[in-house]
Amino acid sequence: MTMEASNTRWLDYAPAPESTSILHLKKSYGLFIDGDFVAGSGRSFTTISPADEHSIAEIASADAGDVDRAVAAARKAYNSTWSKLGGADRGKYLYRIARLVQERARELAVAESLDNGKPIKESRDVDVPLVAAWFFYYAGWADKLEHAGLGPNPRALGVAAQVIPWNFPLLMLAWKIAPALAAGNTVVIKPAETTPLSALIFAEILQQADLPNGVVNIITGAGETGSLLVNHPDVNKVAFTGSTAVGRAIAKSTAGTGKKLTLELGGKAANIVFDDAPIDQAIEGIVNGIFFNQGHVCCAGSRLLVQENIETEVVDRLKERLVTLRMGDPLDKNTDIGAINSRAQLDRIRALSDIGEEEGATRWSAPCEIPAKGFWFAPTIFTGVETSHRIAREEIFGPVLSVLTFRTPAEAIAKANNTPYGLSAGIWSDKGSKVLAVADKLRAGVIWANTFNKFDPSSPFGGYKESGYGREGGRHGLAAYLTNAVLQSGANK
Amino acid sequence: MTIEQAVALAPASRAIDLIGGDLTEKSLRLHLEGLPGVDAVGLEARAAGLGTRSIKTTSKAWALDTIIRLIDLTTLEGADTPGKVQSLVAKAMTPDPSDLTTPRVAAVCVYGDMVPYAVKALGPNSGVNVAAVATAFPSGRASLPVKLADTRDAVAAGADEIDMVIDRGAFLSGRYGMVFDQIVAVKEACRRDDGTYAHLKVILETGELNTYDNVRRASWLAILAGGDFIKTSTGKVAPAATLPVTLLMLQVVRDWHRLTGERIGVKPAGGIRSSKDAIKYLVTVAETVGEEWLDPRLFRFGASSLLNDVLLQRQKMTTGRYSGPDYVTID
Amino acid sequence: MTHLAIPKTYKLYIGGAFPRSESGRTYEVTTSKGAFIANAAKASRKDARDAVVAARAAFSGWSGTTGYNRGQVLYRIAELLEGRRAQFVDELRSTDGLTEAAATKQVDSAIDAWVWYAGWADKYLQVAGNGNPVSGPYFNISTPEPTGVVAVIAPATHGLLGLVSVIAPVILSGNTVVVVASESSPLSAISLSEVLATSDVPAGVVNVLTGSAAEIAPWLASHADVNALDLAGAEALEWVDLQIAAADTLKRVLPPESGLPALTVDRVTFFTETKTVWHTKALI
Questions:
Q1: Residue B268 in 3-state DSSP?
Q2: How far apart are CA B122 and CA B88, in angstroms?
Q3: Residue B306 included in any domain
């Protein structure tokens, strides 16, 4: 009963892998249209595990005809069943879905970590519980829409086209589908090309819930499929989460069409640490802010703004903390940092990090052992970053933190706001009056004070400026899926 | 004696080194009030996160033995008798008669008047220390001379370690200097004739300090005044040890080490009854101050029933089947 | 003796001042029957640029005032407008060819619109925001905040009421505005500017451009420092192109209205951003 190898640290902990035996995957998956899995007409593709690049399943790709069929199924379901159903019954379907997600939580978590590369502790403790919570929350709204403060008789828009990213595959699906169905819309949703798996298992849940055919259609494919979907003439609503570049293109292509559009795009959040911060919690918050989900988070605290007089201390403590992070098998229950989602994303993170060095910032990476296969990037900090550096301005979407300093609250605010983005920000201070005043001045949609990366279905989420428009979550999230009689009619007195 | 004794130093020297020679109530207060605040939500979230580590196979085996090695096996009852203490000592020396590879615990922890019986039962070279609670434990509501006499008495009887309580009333009313002076005095009372000191553990009784900010200040204060260990609780007040409080005290100890290079011990006591809970503490130690703290010189569990649960788990790992309470001894 | 009238020189309103167009251009404003009334300044893209700079400069101060304060400022506008009713009635009669009764009705409605929106300044937050019952020890509140600099194409008709109907809901929350006035009916826009200049509205909060909306609007739609675009009066323009240009910086865009924009709190909240603030809560 002693440790076998004396040179191993106990801290390295023996492997504690989550079993994949709970998964019952098919070799290939079709498109989920009108309640059934059907073959896609586009060229199918393989989804792989980013941790070791092994193939998981063959995935269908939807071409223009498939998109037509999916939208037609959603339209038919809207006209014939869903719009005729009472709010209470729509709510009951959503409650059913929520329960089924809870029942199959472990399976969904394993699938998510396998396909996305995120640590199982995150998919198990954050993503999947929030998915269930999102359906529970919006289930209750379905028969209470007239109390949402959006006018006396809010009505559904019709067919919603939704395109979601790969960083929180199932959670983003829930953010999109739950409010859409609660408000009475039907849905065609396209998961990201690299992470379709959990959405396809979710399709099975919809079958188990006996959701009427066509109310939710899930089509897989690459960016072209997404473009076909959002530009389809028979959709009434477009909801997109992803890059600002794609969001901009969608805003252009939907201009003048009358489609209601909500966009949740990129960010370059400032995480502001004052010298009166609760320091141990601030360090944890910085770590959680940028290294949660490998930094693949649009609201990640990628710019650390630290008060100049504590910069050295904060950076030293941060480095000490990062040394204790475990990078490796996403399915190991002790893994803190999983795999980068794709080779393309890894290439981008590497390229921007190289640029950071070229621009003169100092790079430090945690001494992690990089697995031989798969896509990996060790948690990295850049110090000596100036506001003009590209790593201080561009979204890296990876585990890379840029450290900048400030001397006064006014300077912190100015630097935090000096970006075309405006999604989120963090503030760390024990002084309540300062926290609230700084929160007032930050031009960002979500401000976390003495915490970071917290999400809740009752709490609106979304950005200012080029981080997009519209809110997801809460009462505000319903507005994206309901008509606004006054503004849309252009009614005159 | 396997556990190193504290280096003899003038008891208030830490405070003088850090704050300056003109140590006053005021300078002490300013120093303590300048410590960073604690955000309870973040602290508790971090502790909960550490609690989700999954410790398996070889790591678990090492953890179970380590827990035993870190236990201060404790009996602190009004009904304690020499016989009860003798029985406790036997358990401390041979925790599992069915498996003699089981390590011994770090110490037995008893009331001062029981020290002679513990010392006698342990005999020489047992490798197990005798810790005595002192200073009018658990309330600490006695005059300083009484507290000092209590301490000297235990040391003279052969106690290797003294677990003192701070005056929580004085602390909560802001009389930090008084708390400081008492710890310094007790430390002085730990001095043996040969110039060595009994190891001093300072019990903060965190359940009565109530806030995390107070716990941080009290921890810092206890270290400044010369404590070798900071200990959460007497076990007589709820809540006793919690993971967040222990994490916070470990953070203080880590900061002290960062500042001075000196290593201070931490002892959570009371309420840790299962191996599963104890492993969470080991994880918290390893990931906060580092694995080197998983050593009886720097970390202890104040516990009584924990030992048997660890023994059951240990038997499970050895035999591959679940064991039962009849297969471990009562004390 | 008859008094020989002194015609007014109609200029732009930018940053609290009344400059001529930097381009030196003017255009003729005529009655509905074509008779000359006045020369109005014909704003250029550079005037639009200057107006955006003025609006941005005013944003921090204006959005930093209290709702109660902004409500009083808007109410003060109504007070001053009330005192100049006759002038506005005259202008509307000449440019829009309205009867005295119709012109009077429009001026009265414009005054009432200021009063109605003034009352919203310290209330829209309560209607559009709320606390959120998150699962955890967090204080969590969502409140609307002004979007920033808003460019507005005013309705082509209803020279005064149209203008008020688009300016008031935008500025009451703390936004600042660059408005392109009705090309055919600019006189009340400039006269309204004179009211604003003598009221308590800080310089730069409202900036008024007269001239060709078709010429100026694309510059505003594509301007990176404009946060939102109200196309209320852009129905006759190539407004889809404007919306496309606005997409480059993800501006919030309100599509054209077929008539006079209704008074509604939705017009207020459209030009706000919901900010959600989380803070930890703990007794210990």
A1: coil
A2: 10
A3: yes
Domain count, chain B: 1
From A18, A112, A264, A466, active-site residue: A264
Q: Are strands B301-303 and B265-267 parallel, antiparallel or unpaired?
A: unpaired
C92-141 confidence digits (pLDDT tens): 999 889 999 999 999 999 999 999 999 999 999 999 999 999 999 999 99
Euclidean distance between CA atoms B60 and B317, whole angstroms? 9
Tokens 């008060």 belong to: A307
Q: Is residue B1 part of a domain?
A: no
CATH superfamily of C9-280: Aldehyde Dehydrogenase; Chain A, domain 1 (3.40.605.10)
C283–B41 CB contact, under 8 Å: no
Nearest by Cα to A348 from A321, A377, A319? A377
Contact between residue C151 and residue C220 where contact means Cβ atoms under 8 Å apart: yes
């850090």: which residue's tokens?
B18
Q: Which of residues 108-147 of C touch A (CB under 8 A)?
A: 127-128, 130, 132-136, 138, 140, 142, 147
For an interface test with A, the pick among B35, B58, B284 (most A C-beta atoms closer than 10 Å) comes out as: B58
Distance CA C186, CA B173 (A): 73
Residue A234 to residues A69, A95, B245, C239, C255, Cα–Cα distance (Å):
11, 29, 59, 22, 20
Helices (H), A331-430: 343-358, 409-417
Domain with B68, as residue range(s), is 16-316
Kindly provide the ipTM of the predicted complex, given to two decimals.
0.95
Among residues A38, A63, A92, A68, the alpha carbon closest in space to that of A212 is found at A92
Residue A110 near residue A120, CB atoms below 8 Å: yes
Phi–psi pair at C105, nearest 5 degrees: -60, -40
Residue B110 DSSP one-character state: E
CATH of the domain at B24: 3.20.20.70
Do residue B212 and residue C284 have CB atoms under 8 angstroms apart? Answer: yes
Report CA torsion sign: C184, C187, C188, C193. positive
For C281, which residue in chain B has the nearest alpha carbon?
Answer: B41
**Residues in chain A, pLDDT under 50:** 1-6, 486-493
Average pLDDT, chain B: 94
Whether B31 is in a domain gets the answer: yes
CA distance A488 to chain B (A): 44
Q: CB of B183 within 8 A of CB of B202?
A: yes
A276/B291 Cβ within 8 A: no
Interface contact A465-C254, CB threshold 8 A: no
Annotated active-site residue in B91, B187, B267, B280? B267
Contact between chains at A281 and B53 (C-beta distance less than 8 A): no
Chain B adjacent subunits, 3+ CB pairs under 8 A: A, C
With CA atoms as reference, report the closest residue to B151 among B199, B89, B211.
B199
Residues B48-71 pLDDT 10s: 999 999 999 999 999 999 999 999
pLDDT at residue B72 greater than cutoff 90: yes
Q: Which residue of C has its CA nearest to B42?
A: C280
Chain B residues touching A451 at Cβ < 8 A: 41-42
Q: Rg of chain A's alpha carbons, rounded to an integer?
A: 23
Give a yes or no: residue B147 inside a domain. yes
Q: How far is CA C219 from the centre of its chain?
A: 17
Q: Which of C231, C268, C261 is nearest to C246 (CA)?
A: C231
Q: Residue C186 has which token pair?
A: 């600019």
Answer whether C138 sits within 8 Å of B211, measured CB to CB: no
Burial (0-12, 13-18, 19+ Cβ within 10 Å), B114: buried
- State whether residue B314 sits within 8 Å of chain A by CB: yes
**Residue C2 burial (CB count, 10 A):** 4
Bridge-based pairing state of the strands A260-264 and A237-241? parallel
Residue B125: count other Cβ atoms within 10 Å of its Cβ.
Answer: 8
Judge contact between C182 and C212, C-beta under 8 A.
Answer: no
